[in-house]
Design a protein that fits this description.
By secondary structure, the protein is α+β, with helices and mostly antiparallel strands. Helix content is 55%, strand content 19%. It folds into 3 domains: 191 residues, no CATH class; 180 residues, no CATH class; 67 residues, no CATH class. The protein is elongated. It starts with a helix and ends with a helix.
């Protein structure tokens, strides 16, 4: 009976109750979307770190981590690879040569880390082959000779990324329904070569208004982008005696990941061709990257590999990508922080509403006490009213928040203005929100706890009423 009375009391003042329910609904929606965006970012960062940068486990010479010298190769390599093939938890693995180098073009130079890889095995461990940009050539293959795969960022630094308004670019812009008046002003820039995004942006600013740039600037820049595929890149490394050696490679493809720092430092060539450059009788192995079927097996596999690796260092993705590990481990804390702040703000509104309800019903509560309703039932009734009031808004908020998160999880949210900054620290500029069932369980518990805590003060206010005095209240 108390449950029925409490539910009816919620709707006695519909306007006031709907205001609180709406506030709770909006608060929960914002909480779901905020946590969904954070969850999506963390998962995308974790996926990128494992699938592009560090895999699940890496093995190096114990001194290679401190000083990446060419002669610090893996020990007991044959034994390690033989035993690793017997581990059922391992999905794929690849050996790499890893050398610090200088990359040069006639226009610029950049310090890089050059990876000598088996292109086919590398495809099984990393997803860099999926990151080849549009019109950016192709991935490495074993049949190609003298090829080098570089990133979009490295191409920009080496001036191999240019912007040129061609007839083809204008035709593509027409297909995107760019107004003829805008296209006409591109004639002044036609066939001019710009070797940096900044130079091209400045040229566009001289021809177009800010409003036009905001609407068409990114589209024009995208269609004018041109990579100098098959351009020569000179690579300079030091051999095992410290003697500088130079080699010429041609750009076969341009890739792009969500981590600008990784992109800027990493270029890839076939391991055999890199061995020919440093003149070794065999391919040097500085790193083994291992991908597992299940991330949860990282600990046990590391223990097994540590027993067979001898003096080599075996490290997991948590040690190799501590930023992604920290974000993943502290996700529950983000739940508490984000939802806790929202619930705290909502609690004040709920308390205020319930205090007003108690004030308006003073005479009624006095009568209930006078006819024999004990204080525990009064307390339970007010608590249930608060829970119902909050619960209706929470259910509506979770349903709407989940709907919005599902839609945005498919379309994505592009933080255009901050994209470059996010990618500089390894996070994608376009995020796909994700909301887990566990989060809804968490938010349900938080809502119930908030409602119960918020009901204490109004309930105590009601319990302090003296029936005789309460009955005299008008």
């Amino acid at each position: 009976m108390i449950w029925s009375i409490a539910w009816k009391n919620v709707w006695r003042n519909k306007k006031r109750s709907l205001v609180v329910i709406t506030a709770v609904t909006l608060g929960i929606i914002s909480g779901v979307l905020l946590v969904g965006i954070m969850e999506g970012w963390v998962r995308q960062r974790l996926h990128a770190a494992i699938s592009n940068e560090v895999s699940h486990i890496q093995i190096h010479h114990k001194e290679f981590i401190k000083n990446e010298e060419i002669d610090l190769t893996l020990r007991n390599l044959g034994e390690i690879t033989r035993d690793m093939d017997s581990l059922k938890e391992v999905s794929a693995w690849v050996k790499r040569t890893k050398i610090v180098a200088m990359a040069n073009t006639p226009w610029a130079n950049a310090g890089v880390i050059i990876y000598g890889v088996d292109a086919e095995k590398e495809r099984l461990v990393t997803e860099i082959y999926k990151g080849i940009v549009p019109n950016g050539g192709r991935y490495l293959d074993e049949q190609s000779h003298g090829d080098i795969l570089i990133s979009d960022k490295t191409a920009e630094i080496l001036k191999l990324k240019q912007y040129i308004v061609t007839d083809s670019a204008i035709e593509k812009l027409k297909g995107e329904k760019v107004p003829p008046a805008v296209l006409a002003r591109l004639d002044k820039l036609k066939d001019k070569r710009f070797r940096s995004p900044g130079d091209f942006r400045e040229a566009l600013q001289q021809e177009f208004s800010r409003k036009e740039l905001n609407k068409y600037g990114l589209l024009i820049t995208d269609k004018a982008l041109d990579y100098r595929i098959r351009n020569k890149v000179q690579i300079t490394i030091s051999d095992q005696e410290g003697t500088p050696i130079q080699g010429i490679f041609r750009v076969c493809g341009i890739y792009k990941t969500t981590n600008t720092g990784f992109d800027q430092a990493s270029v890839f060539v076939n391991a055999g061709e890199l061995a020919s450059l440093y003149g070794g009788s065999e391919i040097l192995t500085h790193e083994i990257a291992i991908l597992l079927h299940n991330m949860d097996d990282v600990g046990p596999v590391r223990e097994k590999l540590s027993r067979i690796s001898g003096d080599n260092s075996v490290r997991t993705w948590k040690e190799l990508a501590p930023d992604a590990a920290m974000m993943n481990d502290f996700m529950i804390m983000y739940y508490f922080i984000f939802i806790g702040i929202i619930m705290l703000a909502l609690a004040f509104g709920i308390i205020n509403t319930m205090l007003m309800a108690i004030l308006e019903r003073t005479k009624e509560l006095g009568m209930l006490m006078a006819i024999g309703m004990n204080r525990s039932r009064i307390f339970k009734m007010i608590m249930l009213e608060t829970v119902f009031l909050t619960g209706v808004g929470a259910v509506a908020g979770m349903l709407l928040g989940w709907t919005f998160a599902e839609v945005l999880g498919k379309t994505g949210i592009h933080f255009t203005g901050w994209g470059e900054g996010f990618e500089a620290i390894g996070f994608a500029a376009k995020v796909y929100p994700e909301v887990t069932p566990g989060f809804f369980m968490f938010i349900t518990i938080m809502v119930i706890v908030t409602a119960i805590i918020s009901s204490v003060w109004p309930a105590r206010k009601a319990l302090k009423l003296i029936p005789v005095e309460a009955l005299r209240t008008e």
